[in-house]
Specification:
The chain has one helix at about 35-40; strands at about 5, 15, 50-55. It is α+β, with helices and mostly antiparallel strands and about 70 residues long. Strands 1-3-2 form a 3-stranded mixed sheet, with helices on one face. The N and C termini lie close together (about 10 Å).
């Protein structure tokens, strides 16, 4: 399910869309355990941006997704 990792009044919004055969946790977590959405929120250069995680089901047998989805 897609959801906001961080939602606030910031004029900056980052949208993370994972790839095939992945999800919003595994795709954006490094091998050493750093989660990219958290990294953005902690970086003072971005001044606490809003972060949206676009998550969708994917597998070799998942259906096609259209624009509406």
């Amino acid at each position: 399910m897609s959801n906001w990792h961080t939602l606030n009044n910031s004029p900056t919004v980052f949208v993370f869309v994972h790839g095939f055969f992945s999800n919003s946790i595994e795709c954006w977590t490094s091998d050493c355990g750093i989660y990219w959405p958290n990294l953005l929120n902690e970086d003072p250069r971005f001044k606490k941006p809003s972060v949206f995680l676009a998550n969708y089901y994917t597998s070799p047998f998942s259906n096609d997704y259209g624009i509406k989805d």
